[in-house]
């Protein structure tokens, strides 16, 4: 069979003939005679004249195919040479993990249209290896002409060195050096970011992050790495960071099947609430029944209804449960999420043992903030965010796929309301009064400067010991010492403590004197052995130091502005 093909005089073509395989097992796959290097990797062109374009005739047919030899078919364009083609498959599937290394592609210039970001030439030096002994690379951050490399146990910087000169408008480039990432230089100090890159935050030239392996919160600035957790909070962060795990932990919830399952869908109900309304939809889960032997299957949570007493969930699975009992299994691990609060100029860090959908109890997380102006940790917060960060001049946090703006004062009396709450949460500050540390004192009064609406939750002294009830015996066996602690009654706020008697207004808590709120301390201490006067008969408490917690009340302008400038206590030196 012959064919006449009209082509332009300046183009070159290859004329190839494809014939079908005569082996029925190969489903008449076309082969290319004379090309032993293909055969299965070469494109399989369709055969036959039917609509299905599948060759299945007992009489084999052949087809001629034309292959363009010049790029875009243009006159005098680059000609495709003989040799290896782009569709050649490299069967060398060996791979090498570079968990502590970097690999980079070609250059990109949007102005000239030069784009080689999809080019990873094995003939060029396109890899850079950090010290593998320092662990895997967890975080990269480009800062000016440096690339910051955060490994588990080390922090490095590398010069971003693109010595490239672009010439012309067609994207041509001349490079005096193929080095894109220069020499890697480690920062002083054996610190890293562990496996918590989510703790990273930046403001200006300061970077903040945590090192769980060393129980440290760190700041990287122009003077190197500083351990900011040592500013009065070393023990706190040592215990908090040690409580989170890098490994996935298995969490199990009991379910009860309800209703008749549809095809591919089974409906379940939690036996208890357990905060399960916060479980993210679409999560891959493990589900197994309570029968014997147990049956396990993979499933996906597609819907969750929390409008009733117990959450009801729809799961994509065909599993038939025995005894209509089952268990919902998720895998979680702890994290330390950090961000910059641009409103207060603080680094906010939330150390969480598990996600919000497992628990929102205060024992499951610690959220605090670091203030550069005082070089210390200033506040604890009662919210458990999934992510925090700032955009322009606003501070945001993410909870359950929702974004919330903090410090929103556009709505009147909106302070202290977090994540859709209708009532304001309590704000509190805890002080320690410790003047003349080695002198026993009697604390008689408490006062503060600020707005109306503050109350004293407790005012208590240090723990004191008395002689044991059981005397020592031979050989030197002592009984347990008794421990006592002086405490006072709570002090009501100015408004909540107001009452009238005989037409005269009195204040059972704070009273206002010259724009300062003052109150006396009434003891609520337990009687000690041999003590004659105790409890409410005594004014104030005795001790070396005292701890006081001041908080906002619930009735004085809820959600309104309440300022607190100073808290003080009047004391005298104890005479006995």
Written overview of the protein:
The chain has 576 residues and is mainly β. It has four domains: 1-92, no CATH class; 101-186, no CATH class; 249-332, Beta Barrel (Elongation Factor Tu (Ef-tu), domain 3), CATH 2.40.30; 429-573, no CATH class. The strands form 14 sheets. It has a six-stranded antiparallel barrel with strand order 18-19-22-21-20-23. The longest helix is centred in the middle third of the chain and has 9 residues, at 234-242. The termini are far apart.
- Using the alpha-carbon principal axes, give the shape: elongated
What's the number of domains?
4
Instruction: State the major sheet.
Output: 6 strands, antiparallel, barrel
Structural class: mainly beta
Query: Considering DSSP H and I runs of 4 or more, what fraction of the residues is helical?
Result: under 10%
Rg calculated over all Cα atoms = 37 Å
Low-confidence stretches: 34-39, 41-61, 162-166, 172-176
Distance between the termini: 124 Å
Beta strands, count: 44
Query: Which strand-content bin applies to the residues?
Result: 35-45%
If strands are numbered along the chain, what order do they take across the biggest sheet? Answer: 18-19-22-21-20-23
Query: Treating each run of at least 4 consecutive H or I residues as one helix, how many helices?
Result: 1
- Average pLDDT over all residues: 76
Notable traits:
576 residues; mainly beta; Elongation Factor Tu (Ef-tu), domain 3; 4 domains; 6-stranded antiparallel barrel; 4-stranded antiparallel sheet; 39% strand
